[in-house]
Structure formats: C-alpha cells, structure tokens
Batch of 3 targets.
Target 1
Amino acid sequence: MSAAAPASVKRPNQRWQMAEPHLEASTALAKAAHLPQVLAELLVSRGINEASEAFAFLNPELAHLNDPLLMLGMEAAVTRLEQAIARHEPVLLYGDYDVDGTTAVVLLKTSIEMLGGTVRFHVPHRLREGYGLQSSVLEAAYADGVRLVITVDTGMRAFAEAETARKLGLDLIITDHHLLEAGDAVPHALAILNPNRPGCCYPEKSLCGAAIALKLAQAVLERRDAEHALRSSEQYNRSIVDGSPDCLAILTPDARLSQMTPQGRRLMEVEDFTSIANADWFAFWSGEDQAAARRAVAAALDGSAGRFQGYCPTRAGTPKWWDVIVMPIPGENGATERLLSVARDITEVKNTEGRLTAANRFLDSLIENLPVMVFIKDARTLCYVRQNRACLNLLGLEHGDVIGKRDRDFLPAEQADFILAKDRELLAAGQLMDIPEQSIHTRVLGVRTLHTMKMPILDELGAPEFILGISVDITERKLAESAVRELNAALSAKAAQLEAANKELESFSYSVSHDLRAPLRAIDGFALMLEEDYKERPLDSEGLRYLSVIRQNSRRMGALIDDLLAFSRLGRQPVAQTEVNVDSLVREVVEEVLHAEPPSERGKSAVTPHIEVEPLPPARGDRGLLRQVWANLIANAVKYSSKAARPFIQVSGRQVGAESHYSVRDNGVGFNMEYAEQLFRVFQRLHRADEFSGTGVGLAIVHRVVTRHGGRVWAEGKVDQGAVFSFALPRGD
C-alpha cells in the first residue's frame, strides 16, 4: 500500500491509452460537464464528446443508484466517511485493477481530499495478488491508523477477509456490481452498495464502481454543503439575534427563564446569567404589568403573539420601561415548545412621553386659565374643537354647547356670517389676521366688543389644518375710551369756558376801570360843583340839574352792577338738559318784549316793528337760560331797528347736520364787521349810550349761555343795512 498512485501501475488495457486528440477532447468534456478527467477519458473512448451526451449516458446509471435499499446503505456509508474526515483518520481505498476500479478510486480519492480527508489506496494486480481483499493489506492499513476501508469492484465472493477486518476493528464499505447467488454468505460490512440486485439489469457494469463512487462522493459533498449552509445559517441567525438591540430571552412554557442574549444581559445589567436562570419570568413584573405579562404568555401559548408595555427595573435597580412581545417557538410537531420574549427598552420614550405629557398638561392648564379667550377651529369644517374657560364664561356656555358646533349654532346670524367671512378670508390669505373690533352676543353680558387675532395652523404638507384665535374683551376699554372722549370734550368745553371767562374777566376789568369809573367821575364832579357853588346859597335850577345828573349816573352804575351780577351768575348756574319747544318759547319772548317796553323807549319813531317767526326746530337744553338768549337777541333787534321807517324782524331756524341753527335778522342800523368779535364781550358797545340805551352785557350773556350748551354764536352785518345774529346748538338726539 502506498500514499500515492504507484508509478508502475498501468491501465488494464492499452486501448485506454488516449491519443493526443482524445486527450484534448476528454479535457474539454471534463471542463464542460464538470467531470473528473479519468471519467471524461472513459466517456470519450466510447464516442461521447458532448456534455449533454455524457449526462444522457450517466443519468440512467445514476438513476439505478436511487434504490431505497441502496440509499439506506449509502446513508450509513456517508455518515461513516464524514466521521473519518472529521477525526482526521486516513481512509483506505481498495480497488480492482480495471477501468471501473481505478476510476472509482480516483473519484473517491479526489472527493475525500477535497473535503479535507486523508487517503490511502491499494489497487492489487489480479495476476500477482489475486482477486479480492487481502488480510495483509488490512493489517498494514490498521497499523497505519486506518479505521475505514472502502472496496471497489473486488468481487462479492472474494471477501473471506471481511471477518478479519471486523476483528481488527475496521469498518468496511463494499461497492460491487456482482450478484450474490443463493447460498452465498453475505460478508460482514458497515454498508454494501450493490445496485445490481435480482430483477435489475445494470446497463454498463464496467462503470458500476465509478458510478457508485461518484454517487458516494456526491452525497458526501451535498451533506457537507448542507451542514455548511446550516452552520452559516445558524451563525447568521445567531449574529442577528446577538446583534439585536433588544433584550431577547427564551422562556419555557411555564414562563421560566431559559436563555438570554448578551445584549439582553447588558440591558438588564445581569453579570452572571446563572443568577437568574430558570427564574420565574412573571416575578420580574408587578401589579397590572404582571397581569399583562400573563396575558401575553397565554396568547403565545395559544399560537399568537402577545404584547404589552410595563415597568421592570434592571438587576442593578435601574428603572426601565419595556415594550414586550411574547411569541411561540413551535417544535417539530407544530406544538409550542418554548417562548421567545423580545423586550425593547423604551425608557427614554416613556420619559419623553412623560415630559411631553407634563408640558401638554402645563400648556393645557395655561390655555384654559388665560384671562383672554382662546379657541381652535377645524379648518375644513369650521367647527370648534377647543374653547378655553374665558371664552365659555363670556358666552355663558359649556363645552358641550360649542365643541363640534359652528358659530351659527349659538350666535345670531349676522354675527355668525361676519365670523364666517373672516375665517374664509383668513384661509385664503394664509397669514395672521387682526380684527380690531367685533361684536359678539352673549347670554349673560349682552353684546360685547372683542379684539380678535386669528392665524392658520398648517399640517405637514403646508395646508391649513386648524384656525387658532385669541380674543380680548375690550368692552370696558371702549367704554373707558368713550368716557375719556366725553371727559376730553367736557374739558375742552371747560377750557373754552375758562378762556371765555378769562376774556370776560379782562373785559370786566376794563369795564370796571372805564364804564364804572365814568359815572363815578360824573357823580364826584357834580357833587364837588354842588359843594363849591351852593355852599353859601340855596339850590337853583342849575343845582337841581346837577343833582339829576348825579342820580342818572348812580342809576346807570346800578344797572351796570345788576347786569354784571346776572352775567356772573350765569357762570355758576347749572345747565339743565330738557327738550325745549323753541317755537313756543320764541313767541312768548316776542310778546314780552313788545309789551314790556313803552314805544317811547324803543326810539323817537315809536313804530311797532313787524316780527315774523318761522317754524323753529326744538332744542335740548336749559329753557330758562335759552329764554335769556332769545330775550336779548330779540330786544336788541327791536332796539337797533327802531330808527328804521318800517322796522322788520325775522326769526328763523333749521337743522344742519348734527346742529340746530337759529337766526334773528333785522333791518336796523347794522354794524361794521371789523368789530364783530367785540360784540359778544362784556361792556363792548359799538354805539353811544345817547344813541341806544344799554350796558353792553346782553350779547355777552348770549355768548355765555350758548357756549355752556356746547354751541357757538356769530353775527353778520353792514352799517345801515341791518344785522343777523345766529347761534347753533347740538341736536342732542
């Protein structure tokens, strides 16, 4: 026996020695059909040069090797051959000295070495060593460490030494195509690969050993490939399992911990798995979480997956939350043998959720308790999805009255239509909208004025999803602004009155120094004349005249003082606000003026003036004070028109915008418009006292009364062409 093919070994027949063209053809066939070179040479010698022809020739032979009895022996042979390769035991290949035997030996040798095995082979020469297995060869092989012998085409009746192999402890695999006849003893062997059983006619006996060897080598390679694929698959699956970021654990059907991945041990902070091996998995959970874990295991035992989230601290006490899925692991019969628990650490998610929940709770409380109104609408339906407490309190409603409702469901149609139009305008513009004033009907507080700002809230695609609105009740502010405006108006009126009072005070000072001083000088001068001229003699007619002048100036000074007192009282007298029938008031004043003053005092002509009173609009004010206005204006018109040939006075009135205008027109002496502003000052007169009587206070009284009513007064005139005195009062309606 030798470790390599002997150099002296010759092919059994010179006809197998291929010429060079045949060698090239066999090499090409071996490459094309993926066959061993020696088998390709055999096929080419039989005129088979194409791969398809080779497969067609070999398939019938290989098909006979699928016999169940043969395959049973094949399984045992393949298993033993794999053991030898795994144990690094050399394998003895014992072949016959013919084409079939040598071809089979070469095929097996190549296959075993490809699998990493060691081969010893022996091909005896029939003439020198005989036909069959030799004891000496077996003993030498055993001494060399061989424990498996494979024979090829050595004859089924030439195994007298099979018992020797058994005694030596050699496992024997016999491959042969010869038939065992009746009475033949079956040699003791691990496997006998003999496809040529009775009833079968092997088509090409000269290839039987090679075909069986090819089948054996193919089976070994397929099993090795399958095992390698299985190991690769297991390694791949193990890499996936070990690389999983989750805590993976295997549980028994009664939920006891059997295995845990390294990542799972890291997540659970387990230093030694034996400390928790076979532990009750339910004990890791507590309360409702434990009940959820039991439900998940029950679902897995029923064949489906169970899932729950729960709190379970690590073995080191670190608090953690888990998202757990429990799945069944079925056995070969389909029944659940074990359970797989996949637990994902969601502690950070839970903490984030907690922070978000706290933030949302804070924002919700903030929105709910803001003193301003906050509301949210669905941009598609324009139904309310949120209103805070301030909003509901103002409207006098509850959540159920507004949530899911539109404005028309609880507001008057006019207000709801206004809000709807603004919402549509907002959605079309897509930007912040400011509504400075908006009237809203409320159930408790009546109509309120709101300042509202709205903006669209967009979804992830940029389309409006909600409408956010914030409204502030500015009713009180508007009332305060109105009050401020009224106060400002009152202050302006007061300022105007104060200005007028200051002017009147200035005029009064002038009057005191001028008009009152004049009669005092006259009284003092005539009194001195009486004292000097009539100190030693009685009063004559001239002296009596002096006394008359003194009396006249005294009366004039008294009239001035009375008018001043009346004028000053106007500044302190409150102004009543009532509806005044101006038409009837004027007619009363006309009668009084015409009958209160004798014609002689109106002028030398003593002609009664014609007074025409047109319909006059009513006014709102103090009737007594307005009476003084009309009395002074009409009396002045009568006085200053008394020198006309046919005195004519016209009283008229009309409404102009927010005012009522009144006028008194006469055809008297008139005045120069350059001095129009002086007419309404105290003691300011454009005519001498000997021409027309008076103190110069009447028009000042008119001015003061009209301005205290919030009105205004003016005059127009021309010398000797009459005058028109007018005043305007607020309508007050």
Target 2
Amino acid sequence: MFKNNRRGEPRVRPIVDNNTDRGVHKEGEHKVRPYGTHMGFDSDIHHRRSVRLKGYDYSSNGAYFVTICTERRERLFGGITNDEMMKNEAAKIVETVWRELPERFPGVVLDIFVVMPNHFHGIIFLS
C-alpha cells in the first residue's frame, strides 16, 4: 500500500533503471518508485559527501546534533498515527539508552531529543 503525503499525493522517490543509464537521466525525465522501497547501495551512483568540518576535532567540548537512522530506513521504532508518533518497545529502549548516557559517560549533558519511526535526533553536549 502506498502512503500519501500531507497534500494527499503519493510519496515517491527517484529510482534507478539498472538496465539503462545507472541513474543519469536526461533533463525532464523523472523515474519514481513507491515510498519506503529500498534500491540498495551502489558505489557507482551513491557518492556521499561528508558534512564534517575538515580539521575539526569532534571529540572536543561543544554541542553536537546527532542523527541515527535505522538500516534501510526501516520503521523499527513505531509509526505515525494522526500526526502523532506511536512508540513501540524499541523506541522506548532508544529513549532509555539516550537518557542513561550521562551515567555511562561523565561530561555528557543531554538536551532535547526525538524518536521517529526510522530515525533518532538528539542534542548532546560534551564537556
């Protein structure tokens, strides 16, 4: 079943037709696949650029915005119903582990966080 976005349109993502051009499409072409389906990693077409600052010591004191995604963006932590996150047991475990970080790592201070169906965001301070 295809899910719809807030405007009622089906959610779609670009896809690659592996039998033709390995992801390079002519202007105006737009191939799509159902939202939530996974096409896998292909190093020929997936070129990730690091968002890290060159030369910055990420173990130094400061505030960090953390995002952790599930493998293949699977919805392991629950779902959204009526615009509300319905957390399952796995989401509750993520929350518990996050809250316990300062007990395990002195110098860690936590700020706000949110668990979503397939990822987690949090702000952490290292001192």
Target 3
Amino acid sequence: MKYIFVTGGVVSSLGKGIAAASIGLLLKQRGIRVAIQKLDPYLNVDPGTMSPFQHGEVFVTDDGGETDLDLGHYERFLDQNLTRDSSVTAGKVYQAVIERERSGGYLGKTVQVVPHVTDEIKTRIKAAGASGDVDVIITEIGGTTGDIEGLPFLEACRQMRHEEGADNCIFVHLVLVPYIKAAKEIKTKPTQHSVKGLLEIGIQPDVLLCRTEVPLGPEIRGKIALFCNVRERAVIEARDVTSIYHVPLHFHREGLDDIIVTLLHIEAAEPDLAEWERLIQRMTAIEEGVKIAVVGKYVQVQDAYKSIIEAFTHAGVQNDVHVQVEWVDAEDVEKLGAEEALRGVAGILVPGGFGERGISGKLEAIRHARENEIPFLGICLGLQCAVIEFARDVCGIADALSSEFSPNCPHPVIDLMEGQTHGGKKGGTMRLGAYPCRIKPGTLAADLYDASEISERHRHRWEVNNEYRETLERHGLAISGTSPDGSLVEIVEITDHPYFIASQFHPELKSRPNRPHPLFFGLVRAAKSQRNSHSSSARQVSA
C-alpha cells in the first residue's frame, strides 16, 4: 500500500481538499486505484451538530455519514462514492480510545496520546484500504501546521512514514506564497517557516504546492527548494484559477502526478484526461448567464451551500449557461417582500435548513414562484415549505405548519412519523444516507430521471404528514416520488407550472461535473427558457 498525506500551512482555507481531490483524479486517470479520506482535528464526533456559520455544509454519504464538505469535492472529482469511514475526527478517535479503556481493552496500561491515540489514528488511515482493491490512500489532514489539536494526527502520519518507508509514504504540503503588491515582490518566508514547523515534528515534505496569485519563476522556485530541502521540480505552482475544475489540469501541466508516481515507485500509464479537458473547454466557452436565487438562512456563509453551488456549475455547463447565484436571505424576503427581493431572477431554489427563523420568507418566495410561473426547486426543508405554502394558499388550510416549528399546531402538514423519536439526542438521529425512491410514471420527475426507481441521500427528521396527502393531491400537488412502500413522500410537483418540483432528499450531494443531477439540470434548463422567453417578449414590446 502507498500513502499520500496532504497537509497545509501558513493560513487556512488554501484548498487542501481541492488539492487532495485533484491528486486523486490524476492518479485514478492513470489507472491507479485510489481511496481518499479526511482527518479533522476537532473534538466533535462529526460535523452534524455544528452550525453552518462555523463549519459550512455537512456532506452526507450513502451510508449516512455526516462529514466534512471536502468529501463532496472528493466524490465529485473522483466520481466515486465514499463512506462514513472516509471522515475521521479527533472526536471519533478519542471516543474509541476512551470506550476501549473503559471496557478494559488496554489491560491496565496508562493510556496516552502516544502510542494509543496515534495507533487508533493509524488504524483508521489503513482501514481505507481494507477492501484490498486500493493502490494508494490519500489522506488530507485538516487544519494548519502548528495547530495544537492537529499534532496527534501529524505524529501518527510521521510514524506511518517511519513504519512503511519513504518509498511508500510521501507528504504533500500546501502553502501560501504571498505577493506584496506595494513592493512588487513574491515572499517565500511564510513557506519556509511552515516547512520548518513540519521539520520540528519530524516531517520532511516531499512536494510543495505553492498557492500564488502570480507565476513563480525559476529563481523563486529554486529559493524555495533550497531552503525547504525539496527538489526544485517538486515545487509546484498552484496559481489562482477561475474554477476549481481547472486545478487538476494545471497540476498535470506542472508535472505533479509524474513526481508522485516517481516518488512512490509506481509504474503507471499517462493519465487519460480527455473527458476532463472537454468539460473545461465547454465551461470556458460559455457566454450566456442565467440568474437563479437561493433563498436560504445561511447565505452569509456560502460554504453552507457548497454542493448546491457545484451542482449549479455542473447543470450550467450541460445547459451552456453560467448560473449566476443570487444569494437572498429569507429574512430579507420577509422585510422587502418577494417581488422586490427576487426581482429579475429566472429561477428560485429554497434549500434545506433547521429551525423556524426565515420560514415566512421562504414561504413567500415559494408562493411568488408558484403564482408567477418562475421555475422552482425545493430541497428538504424547501419541500416542506412548498407543502405548507400549497396547503395554506391553495387548499385553504390557513394554519397549516410543521410541528418542528409549532409542536401543537392544529394542522401539522409536516410532522414526525409514528415511531420517530430521538431521545433528546441530536447527533446522528435523523433519516440519514441513501434511501430508494419510486417514481410515478408520467410525471416531471419521471421525465427528468428517466427511471422508475432511484436512490437519493437524506438528512432530516420531519416528513410530509400522510393524513393530508389526499387533500394536497386533490388540489393539484402531485406526489411524484415516494418510498417503495408508499409511506413516505419523496418528491412533489405542480403539473400546470413550467417547472415546480421539490424533493425531501438532497439531490446536490450526487451531482457530478460530467453528470449533473436531473433536478438541477431541469431547473437551469427551465430558467434559461424563462429568461429567453422574457428577453423575446421585451424585444417584441420595444419593437
């Protein structure tokens, strides 16, 4: 087994996840079987209970793992599904060590960070290759060099290199090489100090990925190589690009994958990047744009909707338009009104979320989309809000609501199903992961998916209340997707509308650059048609 450890230094948010995903893509396209995982030093067992304002999106895997958003990048770049074991947190590690100690698993020994915590980390790193069909395990270590909480993880990785040998373990370190505009100079000192921090704990990086705004000339590369003790050809320029999907091709041009296979002594063919190159060519050629509003609760932190952003990118490429996301705070819709807050958009998406804040704004945005025939997609809470709005404004159930927001509301059109309890615990107690969904023939959903049964990922507790299904359908809300036994509503749509559809699941989690999700593809296609129709009408009026 071969191991690649991706670390970061100088500052956070440099893009270690994109770097790790790009390395994985390049190796996979060379015929190398790759597994990839993320080590996060925080003490939460998983990010499921963390605020989106602090952590961003929670990415859900097929098996119900609530994980870091970087796993979304891994899945999209490698086009392979990961599991909950692809995300390892300090919380999981310490929980396992303490539970083992409580059950007598250490036979009376003094339990310490070294070797017991580091051994648990190493076990979880190696587990990524337990299936036997893996050649290389790529492990991204979250945080920044020098963080106290990250030291046990870095120590475990250092031990891995000591045990497995330098021919089987390499370190790729991502650093910032700032350009001081006033002095018109590139500064290498932050990189040197970051590498020094790794050297102090016994880690010598083999490859440096240098984030930079400007090209790195031979003199700068040579200086970095000399002072950081790496080969000059292993100083890789990671210049800013217009899209993350350009990164793998840029790394390939820099020779990154050649260096890695050489260091790891892997015999591999040249990468087949033709499909990726076609994607970039098509993306680059786009000239048209279409504006779609995302009406959410966490729009100040766009990382909270990372997979939605990427799903729009994928759908936009396939529709030959650039999706311009208009971020609209649901509370602003409450203050300004939907007509003002959503003026000029060709489509509306209401995403998931938790809690009552902003619900009135989401309901108003959905009503605006429904009454004005603006293409609409609701996701998770977005579906629930669509049902509430329809029940109120079409079915005439004025006090329809969700029991999440008002446990004693008289008409809980959204409710917990019988047997759904969580005993007061929050973490890992929702309907999580992939569930099958049966599509009703002759519906928009059937047309979009071109399938009778699908599998989609969930992250929610509340469901559409079956007691109101007959009323909703009688008034025109079609239930076009259900669980195989028909007991759970998965998709609703309005048939006499250009595009009005909502899903209880999260379609954005399964979108891929070369295979956009059908619901996003349909929304962008409908929004493009809406924009073109309005543009044509405007030209006729002016003529």
